[in-house]
Design brief:
It is built from nine helices and six strands. With 212 residues, the protein is of the alpha+beta class.
Length: 212
């Protein structure tokens, strides 16, 4: 990207048009590749920051979630766009617990999830979360048996409006927001209060079968 104003404006317009047309959020590097300038992700990032400032406070916003950029309706206007539609299937209590454990302790194996929950976890529960696009297989633990380990996805961050996992709320925040029933407290305290996360050593593996 040069200092020429016309070139900068052309890049801004190209990035804006690409994101409007994109079916999925995009990273700065992916945008640079799409625009034929793979050696200039910094210039694309500068354009993204300029567009984010331009759209701030407008009816739509440019946001970054987990390193991926996309346009979304301003939160205070979301009610204007609601339409009658079939309610999506709600997560079961077991799926909600498993999702919370994965988010707060990733990467984590099914055996580790069961140790935290204190009960066995059906493979179908993890399948539901992966079908929703919120949990993915991230590799295998480098221990005997090499169990599959799970982590959250960029779609999980985008759905819950998080820039990164560092923005996950703590127990006090969840309770203050009225999102915890008394019966949930013990499980959530155990999920968030674990002294340390499980070991992270793992190798990437595309296999989705669960052998732990």
């Amino acid at each position: 990207m040069t200092g020429d104003g016309a070139s900068e404006d052309a890049l801004l317009r190209a990035v804006e048009a690409t994101l409007f047309a994109a079916e999925q959020p995009m990273a700065a590097q992916a945008l640079a590749l799409h625009l034929g300038m793979p050696q200039s992700p910094g210039a694309v990032r500068t354009a993204l920051d300029a567009l984010r400032a331009h759209y701030a406070g407008r009816g739509i916003e440019l946001v970054e979630r987990g390193g991926l950029w996309h346009f979304q309706t301003a939160p205070d206007l979301a009610h204007l766009l609601r339409r009658e539609k079939e309610e999506p299937r709600r997560l079961s209590r077991a799926a909600t617990e498993v999702l919370a454990i994965v988010a707060y302790h990733e990467p984590v194996s099914r055996a580790e999830i069961e140790a935290i929950r204190g009960v066995q976890t059906a493979k179908g529960t993890l399948d539901v979360l992966m079908e929703a696009g919120w949990v993915r297989v991230s590799g295998r633990r480098e221990v005997p048996g090499r169990p599959v380990i799970y982590a959250t996805t960029p779609e999980f961050l985008a759905h819950f409006g998080l820039a990164s996992l560092k923005e996950l709320p703590g127990v006090d925040e969840l309770r203050a927001a009225g999102l915890l029933d008394p019966v949930d407290d013990d499980m959530i305290e155990q999920t968030l209060g674990r002294d340390s996360p499980p070991p992270s050593g793992a190798e990437p593996d595309d296999a989705a079968d669960d052998t732990d």
